[in-house]
Amino acid sequence: MLDIKLLEEDIGKLEQGLKKRCIDLLILEHLKTQSQLRKKQIQLTDNLKAELNKASREIAQLKIKSKTDPSIMDFARTRVTETRALGVKIHDLELELQATENKLREVLLELPNLPNASVPEGGDSSFNVEIKKWGELPKFSFTPKDHVDIGERLEILDFERAGKLSGSRFSLYLGAGAALERALIQFMLDLHTREHGYQEIIPPFMVNRETMTGTGNLPKFEADLFKTQVADRELFLIPTAEVPLTNIYRESIIEPGRLPIYFTAYSPCFRSEAGSYGKDVRGLIRLHQFQKVELVKIVEPEKSYGELEKMTQNAEKVLQLLGLPYRIVLLCSGDMGFAAAKTYDIEVWLPSQNAYREISSCSNCEDFQARRADIRYRHIAQAKPRFVHTLNGSGLAVGRAFVAVLENFQNENGEIAIPKILNRYLDGSPGFIKEGDQLWLK
C-alpha cells in the first residue's frame, strides 16, 4: 500500500508515479479531497482533546478549592457537564475520522506500487528492455515438436483425461513425466537451500483474506483467485507461495540482527486466469494449477536493490545448470505486477514457439507489501520500528522448466536428453534409459 504521507508531503512524486503506471489521475483528486478532510478532522479532534484536558485540570482545581469555598462546587458541576458533552463530541469526531481513513484505505488498497526511477516508462511489453542473453539457441535439422506432442507420444502427459477430471487448463503427468517434474522441484529446492542460503518452508496452500490483502492480491484481484467457503470460514487457494511466505511476519516487529530473511518453498499454484481465455490454451504454459518453487526475501530498505540482483542471479543459476538458453528483460512501468516497484523477467527459449517465454519474475516491492501486512523491524534495540522491504521471485516455474527441457533437448525421434544435473534424482527411475552418463527419456 502506498504511504498516505505522500498525499500531504510529496504529491508530485505520487502524481508522477501513478502517471508512469498509466493510472487515471482523476483518482488523485478524490484522494486529495479525502486527505484534506482527514487532516481537518485530525486537527479538530486534537484541538478538542486539548480543550478537554485543560477543562479536566480546571475541574480538579475547582474541586480542591470547593473544600474551603462550597459555592465553587456548583460551577465545578457545570464544567463537568460541559466536559461530558465535549467527550461525546470528540467520540463522534473520532468515528467520522475513522470513516474517512477507511475510505482512504479502500482507495489506496486499489492503487499499484510506484515504479522505481530505473524502471522504463511504457504501457505494455513492447517497452521492456532486454538486459542480457545466456546460452546458445538449439539448432535442429528437423522441425521441433512442441511439448504436448512430445509428452503425449512418450505417454508422460495426458490432457484429455485431465480434462475429464477437472475441465480445461489442467494437466496429468504420468510415470516418467511425474518423476521429471518432481526431480526439477527437488533440484531447485536443493540449489536454493544448500547454495543460496534460503530456508525451506512448507506453507499452507489455503490462506485467509487478510493474508491475501497483505501481498496485494486482494481486494483488486479477487476474480483471479479460487475461493473456498465452508460454513462461515472463507479461505483462498494460493496463486503462489509468495503469499504465505511474505505474510509469515505479518503484524510483527522483527528484532535487530534477524534480517535479511530468505525463504523458499515448493507449492502448487492456483489461478483462475480471468481474462486470459484464448491465450496459451495448449499444454502446460497457462494452467489453473501448476507447480512453482518460490523465493522470498525480507530485508532492510537500504539493501533491497542489491538483494534483487542476487535473487535474479539465484533464479538464473537454475537455468544455467539445466543448460537452457534464456534472456532477462527489465519490465516497463505498465507491464509490472501490481505490488512491484521493479521487476526482472527471466524468459526461457521455447523452440516450438521460436520465442522466449517467461519462467520467472523477480521483483522488489519495497515497503508496499510491508505497509499492507504491517511488517516492521528494528535495526537496533529500542529504535523506532521501520517497514521492511519485501522481494519475491520464481525459482522457477516448474511446469515451464519441464516444457523447456522437452523442447530444447529433443531429437528427431522425439527422445529427450535429460540435463545431467538431474541424474542423481532420476537415475534408476522407471522410464529413463542410461547410455554412458546420459539419461534419456524414450
Notes on the structure:
By secondary structure, the protein is an alpha+beta fold. The chain has two domains: 105 residues, Helix Hairpins (Orthogonal Bundle); 317 residues, 2-Layer Sandwich (BirA Bifunctional Protein, domain 2), CATH 3.30.930.10. It has 13 helices and 17 strands. The protein has an eight-stranded mixed beta sheet with strand order 1-9-10-11-14-8-7-2. A three-stranded antiparallel beta sheet has the order 3-5-4. Strands 6-12-13 form a three-stranded mixed beta sheet. A hairpin with an 8-residue loop joins strand 12 and strand 13.
Instruction: Name the shape in a single word.
Output: elongated
CATH class of the largest domain: Alpha Beta
How far apart are the termini? 51 Å
What is the alpha-carbon Rg in Å? 28 Å
The strand line-up of the biggest sheet is 1-9-10-11-14-8-7-2
User: What is the domain total for the residues?
Assistant: 2
Mean pLDDT: 94
Give the biggest beta sheet.
8 strands, mixed
What's the quick description here?
By secondary structure, this protein is α+β, with helices and mostly antiparallel strands. The protein has helices spanning 6-9, 11-20, 26-65, 72-110, 147-153, 159-166, 176-194, 209-215, 242-246, 304-322, 368-373, 398-408, 423-426; strands at 129-134, 199-200, 206-207, 227-230, 233-237, 252-254, 261-270, 289-299, 326-330, 342-350, 355-364, 375-377, 386-387, 389-397, 416-417, 432-435, 438-441.
